[in-house]
Amino acid sequence: MSKKNQLGVTPLSEDVSAWYNEIVFKAELADRGPAKGTMVIRPYGYTIWELLQAQLDQRFKDTGHVNAYFPLFIPESYLHREADHVEGFSPELAVVTHAGGKELDEPLVVRPTSETVIGEMYSRWITSYRDLPVLINAWNNVVRWELRPRIFLRTTEFLWQEGHTAHADQQEAMDETMQMLGVYAEFARTVAAIPMIEGEKTPGERFAGAVRTFTIEGMMRDGKALQSGTSHYLGTNFAQAFDITYTDVNNEVQHVHTTSWGMSTRMIGAVILAHGDDQGLVLPPRLAPIQVVMVPIGRDEDGVAAAAKADELAAELKAAGVRVHVDHRDASPGFKFSDWELKGVPLRVELGPRDLEAGHVVVAHRVGEVDDKGRAVKQQIPFADFVSGVPALLDAYHDMLVERAETFRDENTSVVDNWDAFEAQVATGFAVAFHCGRPECEDDIKSATKATPRCIPLEGEAAEGVCIRCDNPSAYGKRIIFGRAY
Amino acid sequence: MSKKNQLGVTPLSEDVSAWYNEIVFKAELADRGPAKGTMVIRPYGYTIWELLQAQLDQRFKDTGHVNAYFPLFIPESYLHREADHVEGFSPELAVVTHAGGKELDEPLVVRPTSETVIGEMYSRWITSYRDLPVLINAWNNVVRWELRPRIFLRTTEFLWQEGHTAHADQQEAMDETMQMLGVYAEFARTVAAIPMIEGEKTPGERFAGAVRTFTIEGMMRDGKALQSGTSHYLGTNFAQAFDITYTDVNNEVQHVHTTSWGMSTRMIGAVILAHGDDQGLVLPPRLAPIQVVMVPIGRDEDGVAAAAKADELAAELKAAGVRVHVDHRDASPGFKFSDWELKGVPLRVELGPRDLEAGHVVVAHRVGEVDDKGRAVKQQIPFADFVSGVPALLDAYHDMLVERAETFRDENTSVVDNWDAFEAQVATGFAVAFHCGRPECEDDIKSATKATPRCIPLEGEAAEGVCIRCDNPSAYGKRIIFGRAY
Lengths: 486, 486
Description:
The structure is a homodimer. By secondary structure, the first copy, chain A, is α+β, with helices and mostly antiparallel strands. Chain A has helices spanning 16-26, 43-62, 76-79, 83-89, 115-125, 170-190, 237-242, 266-275, 300-319, 333-342, 353-358, 383-411, 419-428, 439-449, and strands spanning 30-32, 39-41, 66-67, 73-75, 94-99, 102-110, 134-143, 157-167, 197-200, 212-219, 225-235, 245-247, 253-255, 257-264, 292-296, 324-326, 347-351, 360-365, 379-382, 413-415, 430-433, 452-457, 480-483. The first copy, chain A, folds into three domains: 16-275, BirA Bifunctional Protein, domain 2, CATH 3.30.930.10; 292-389, Rossmann fold (3-Layer(aba) Sandwich), CATH 3.40.50; 413-483, 2-Layer Sandwich (Translation Initiation Factor IF3), CATH 3.30.110. The first copy, chain A, is 36% helix and 26% strand. In chain A, the strands form five sheets. Chain A has an eleven-stranded mixed beta sheet, sandwiched between helices. Chain A is globular, with a radius of gyration of 25 Å. Chain A starts with 15 loop residues before the first helix and ends with a strand. Chains A and B meet through β2, α2, β3, β4 and β5 of A and β2, α2, β3, β4 and β5 of B.
């Protein structure tokens, strides 16, 4: 039986899985939908998604992309045109067989991803080199039937963006693939406060239909990996399947080279698992629906005056672009503190009659220094400095979260050169090891340890050795990263 | 055979239907998707949607609403819980019967609207009067099987927002219903430059499951009506079907009163049909992806200097928040002018070597004064006044579009008191007439004239008379509005 804290939450340190589910529900991020494996994203969780969308979308636009919308329904036959693609996605498809009161002549697949339908449209739109590159992104919902659903991490339906670009040649398409991987990594660090390892997937972990798949991998607080975004170079696979050709400057017909790249509501799961603690959510300020919560303290006349001052300061903060909330509920400060800790609000501001008299607020960070009794060290800030000081406090808090996550990851990542060390390492973190590159050896490692190759890191040093499992010569020209994964 | 202009577009004045389809495709707003009745919204069209979303969403937030996301798939049995609702939507449903390689125990309906699944969630979330009101909106895609699809106006899948609120009593829910109707009407006028008639639907035109349905109706340039947004008071119909109850202040259990309200990608169709002309799209500035297009003119050195000046002014405009594009294509000015007219850009700015020397730009409005040869009257604006002057030009252009649409509507709306006048009037516009209120009489009018009751206008004067069709005493206490509709 797990030991729950006063809010009824199992400590993360005891049972991550129970902790995760309880936090998701109690912080009102999401709920289970009636149909198996579906989720309802509640306003608090959806606001995180809106903040994520806005900041990621701006990066797409800054790199020359435009948004569009493609249909939810795809004729089943389209999926079959690219052999690897249909093999990869068939087991996960939801299929519409009846519509408008009749059985359909051809079943419609609910999109699991849109390479096929977009391939069809690009083949209609692209004729000349003048039409290239095509740089389109789409924000939408996709469906992949999940046997073991988990809110945000693996749901039957999820929200995401899928970028789809078409280029004249391989070089340009590869440049785009790497550019978008970089955008994801920068976004994850700058906005979600999660340092990511950028790397390439081994052939066994590639996207169905891709020539090369790149990934950003974050370490969660239990040492597991979470794949948080992928960018694929699709070569001419879909161009051939859907006849996407253009006439080049020499008047010769060529296939385009395409890419696709996606990030989803899974990223909210990454935020929960990369930063959370026993008290609940820890939200990075740039994704926090509420960045500052103000808790006026006191009863009677004094309390009213403190509450009025809190409202006044909150209005100034709001005008300065800070997402602020004043908690006027009829409840004890202790209850409110725990509640906002559960919800992961970065800064809590207390303001009671004595503070009012002293002309300052008391600021507590959701994560920060604690005294020798384990209580958060609070900071007194004069009214005059408070509003102008909050943005810097939030930025510093963001930087602290990045650094904390990076330190945690580095402490839980080791280069290993023998099997015992490997087994021990992947139980709690990432192992950096040589591998032979054979899919059957990957499978063998997975059944022995549950660990999988997360990526061939872009940054690893060139090196050769023998496989951590089978002693065959190493592939990839460098060590690769293994870990258990969500 | 229709007479097409130099861009291959049938004049609106000759064949609205052909004109509409050609404009949608040639202006690259949208394309047909592979699955029957689906549409692909291309970047130019999707940018209109993004601008609409941002400005409508802000109004929802300003009135206290928050966004959330509910699942695409709804268990079929849910639809059956509200009798009118299932009767209304059954013929239009798309049904998933297989998923994950297996036949499902219970088929899943692809949401045609989300009252049912949201009803289920609200019944879980709401327990006390303290939980009310619940003010949630969702942006998503819905599917309604269409036999005669038409891009933006009636597609199998469309994008929309659906607001769903729950309240303690009827008064509060009715206030919300009317507030959101007002938000739609104000948005349509202020952003889309379309003056709307606000009114209530007759019982035969109500939303399936609603107690009262309110609508905004716009007049298109062929005199037809387009229902552009609806707001429903649902009473306790869904609260009873899904057991959404709360404990009131007296500790008694009560059903909540709910509302729902929606506006969709159909609104893009409204913009096309309310403002367009023989030359193509006419976009209102607040929804125009490009508000100002700059066309540098001239070749050789002089042309280069003019192009550089155009880029310089465009950069200043962009910094001032104006959506501007400089057309550097290697094509004739005449071709470019027609192309940007087709695409409906509000202001075209020409800048050639002589203008550069004179220190001014030449501004042409997409819709504006013409000289006695039918050519647009152009305006010379000195460089020094141009950038700061554009926002006011755009605002004035917006106001002109509203006024033009309002004048057109008023000129094509008549009070009629005999059947011959009614028949003539609904052939080209709106007829304001008495009606008995009997559904069979509505049906009779529809088969005789294709006209339907658009709404009982909120603003109409109290009056009594005899039915325009059957001479029975009038219902509703006022005249109502009839028209043919999209």
